[in-house]
Amino acid sequence: MSTGTERNRTDTEAPVTGTGLEVPAVTPTVLHRQASLPSWAPWGVLVAAVAVGAGLTALAGGFSVGLWVFLSVVLYAVVTYAASRVVEGRRRATDRLVTVLVTSAFLVAMLPLLSVLYTVVSQGWARLDATFFTNSMRGVVGVGGGALHAIQGTLVITALAAVMSIPIGLLTAIYLVEYANNSRLARAITFFVDVMTGIPSIVAGLFAYALFALLLGPGVRFGFVGAVALMVLMVPIVVRSTEEMLKIVPNELREASYALGVPKWRTILKIVIPTTAGGIATGITLAIARVIGETAPLLITTGYALGVNLNPFSGPMTTLPVFSYYSYAVPGIPREAFIDRAWTAALMLMVIVMVLNVVARLISRIFAPKTR
């Protein structure tokens, strides 16, 4: 009689016979676990690379933050790759190296953004008071005053530009997707939209100024001219974003509507547009955020006013970008008061753009097609 161990070994190693099928013997294999670096190794290497990079930067003759960061990243990447190559093999070492390079590129891209954000917030916080939002610069020579007229001018001009550009952009995109059928006119429109997307903003300002100078004479500067300049910049963005949203609507939805006898215009109005309402609204909001910070076209078209002017068809109007530019470029006495107002205006502009981006995300989430 054989023991249990021998019986198990015999059952495992012997082939199965007598059934007409020959089953090969199963040879047990041993799985070897691949060696890997300890979890603390990347952090230890990073600390060592930072310390060594700081020492090398100091020895180079004067400490430089940029050189310190560069040397630390290079040392960290080289040491990590070498250690991983010895312990884990070539594939894991290459993976770690690429991870280090991608993470470093992300951090390098974030540094300017964080620097700008910190600078604007720290410099603009000083004048973020009630006076800044309730007073204009009429009658103010030095300290005091606010940007009420600039905030109102920004809202009025941007609203006019949105009212003019959104219908034009939506209807153009609907024509290109639903009616054009890749015609010659559609290709021409697409070409000019692409060209308009890349034109400098100063060109839009010059176009609007030249147009109204021909109609009303030279020297025209009022809010509506600036709104036309911003409209030229907004239209291609609205067209492109709406066109891409309409293209992702499945044709099956349109065909089902046509099969029920619904006319094309009603299908577009009741089926196509509601399906992509979130994406269209997001594109429109981002287009507004894109043009609300424009300075160059408004310097030419709207002029500069010290007081409140809510009539876009008469007299100069001031926007936050123009107010910030003049406060910084042509300061009065004392200079510090004008510089503080410039930074606070820039901070307010960043806040408005951030709010618009948040609104765009909320609209996209609210109007997104429900999957359940």
Quick structural overview:
This protein is mostly helical and 372 residues long. It has helices spanning 4-13, 41-59, 65-87, 90-124, 130-134, 148-179, 184-197, 201-216, 223-247, 251-259, 264-275, 277-291, 296-301, 320-329, 335-366.
CATH superfamily of the largest domain: MetI-like
The level 1 CATH classification of the largest domain is: Mainly Alpha
Low-confidence stretches: 1-14, 26-32
- The CATH topology assignment of the largest domain is MetI-like fold
Element order: H for helix, E for strand = HHHHHHHHHHHHHHH
Major sheet attributes: none
What is the mean predicted local confidence, pLDDT? 83
Strand residue percentage: under 5%
Q: Radius of gyration over alpha carbons?
A: 32 Å
CATH architecture of the largest domain: Orthogonal Bundle
Count of helical stretches: 15
Distance between the amino and carboxyl termini: 65 Å
Specify the helix fraction band: over 70%
Described by its quaternary structure, the protein is single chain
Give a count of the beta strands, DSSP E runs of length 2 or more: 0
Please provide a written account of the structure.
The protein folds into 2 domains: 41-116, no CATH class; 134-366, MetI-like (MetI-like fold, Orthogonal Bundle). By secondary structure, the chain is mainly α. The termini are far apart. It has 15 helices and no strands. The protein is 71% helix and 0% strand. It is flat, with a radius of gyration of 32 Å. Residues 1-14 and 26-32 have low confidence and may be disordered.
